[in-house]
Write a structure and sequence with these properties.
It is a single chain. It is built from 8 helices and 11 strands. By secondary structure, the chain is α/β, with parallel strands linked by helices. Strand 1, helix 1 and strand 2 form a beta-alpha-beta unit. The chain has a 9-stranded mixed β-sheet with strand order 4-3-5-2-1-6-10-11-9, sandwiched between helices. A two-stranded antiparallel sheet has the order 7-8. The protein is globular and about 50 Å long. Helix 1 crosses helix 3 and helix 5 packs parallel to helix 7.
């Protein structure tokens, strides 16, 4: 039996985890695949909180560049994360994982309002909690929401699942000689200015609260389980 190193985690997923090959929308098969990976950790007895992005439905930065108001674009992005949270909840519950969606913007017919103590109680009772609608405020990314929720619920680590297997010193898709980092400090990560990987606000919040981060490839075999069990996977930021 694999022994987990962490008893409570915050998993940050991008919206593309649900989109399949097309990159946009929600593919039920992709959602089921992501749910299976989460269930493997759930079956170890680990308490799990999840923050999911909305980029498979709404790309706010692209619309801002074309003149849309930033706050409006961000609120639309928050709504997209609620759609993704409901899709992931459906996939998890079809796999036998008890799940609650809690949203920072109240919409009682769809999800519970986010209340910190209630979220912790859900996790203690063995329910996966999906935190939707970011922080409930514009100008903050879902990375920052993940860092904030991790600190609030007493998670021991933030696991950021991406499409790449580590943090690199340059784009590995454009530079075959790009060098991966296995360990970085928070300040080193901030100084690299890799905001497309994790924004500086989220990193600063984690640094202030000594919340370690592991960035890894979601689609590598057993990557979430390996990260939770303390195996060397991805890049550790601490």
């Amino acid at each position: 039996m694999t022994e987990p190193k962490y008893s409570r985690i915050l998993l940050k997923l991008g919206g593309e985890a649900l989109s399949g090959a097309g990159g946009y929308g929600i593919d039920p098969a992709a959602a089921a695949d992501a749910a299976d990976k989460i269930k493997a950790v759930y079956d170890l007895g680990v308490e799990i909180g999840i923050v999911i992005g909305g980029g498979n439905i709404w790309r706010g930065q692209a619309t801002i560049a074309r003149g849309m108001d930033r706050a409006t674009a961000d609120y639309m992005g928050m709504a997209a994360t609620v759609i993704n949270a409901l899709a992931l909840q459906d996939a998890l519950e079809r796999g036998g994982v008890f799940t609650r969606v809690m949203t920072a913007i109240e919409m009682r017919e769809l999800a519970e309002p986010y209340i910190r103590r209630r979220a912790i109680r859900h996790m203690e009772k063995g329910r996966v909690v999906i935190f939707a609608a970011g922080t409930g405020n514009p100008y903050f990314t879902t990375d920052t929401a993940a860092a904030l929720r991790a600190v609030e619920v007493g998670a021991q680590i933030v696991l950021k699942a991406t499409k790449v297997d580590a943090v690199y010193d340059s784009d590995p898709h454009q530079n075959p000689q790009a060098r991966p980092f296995r360990r970085l400090t928070y300040l080193e990560m901030i100084n690299l200015k890799l905001d497309q990987i994790m924004d500086s606000t989220a990193l600063s919040l984690c640094m202030e609260n000594r919340m370690p981060i592991i960035l890894f490839n979601l689609w590598e075999e057993n990557s979430i389980v390996r990260a939770v069990c303390g195996d060397e996977v991805g890049t550790i930021i601490s």
